[in-house]
Amino acid sequence: MSLGTLPKVTAYAVTDADSPAIRDLAAQQESAARFSTFSADAAWEVGSAIRAAFLERRVGDQGVIISIELFTGHRLFSAVVGAPPVVGPDNWAWAAAKLNVVRRFGVSSLRKGREFAAQGRTPEAKGLHFPEYACHGGGFPIYLANNDSGPIGAIVVSGLPQLDDHQLIVDALASLPHLLAK
């Protein structure tokens, strides 16, 4: 199934009742969003598409930060849209915490958070405390199609409600099918 044909997580509410559906949809999105290769040029294209998608749907003075980072620590893309107090250092703390969830579990931060909720558990009960971890939408794994051993990095958005942060990434990736594996 192609990424663009999947439902949007924003069709759901962040409730325990919707958690299994959100978790399963996030897993489908991750599976459909495998890259054939990933480079600094691809990161620029993805980050720019996220920024453009945000600007198209921006309401009022909303703001986001966008970060694309490899797990080697190499940040390939970084952008801020908006100004303080809408966007500031707290957004970077959230971004780092979401990235840590993707790095540790190999799945989107939204999916991991909804897995915990579907089990009636909290991330904190498993030792995942903020500011080190944030099991909220907005961290998305970068997987290569020919590598099942784990993601090579993460795409992170912070500043909107968690379902919107996540869906902004997915919508941008769906607009770039030439970067995704067939």
Automatic annotation (TrEMBL):
It comes from Vanrija pseudolonga. InterPro entries: PduO/GlcC-like, PduO/GlcC-like_sf, YBR137W-like. One of its GO terms (cellular component) is TRC complex. GO terms for biological process: post-translational protein targeting to endoplasmic reticulum membrane. Pfam families: HbpS-like. Coiled coil: none annotated. It comes from the Eukaryota. This is UPF0303 protein. The gene is Smed_2872. SUPFAM superfamilies: GlcG-like.
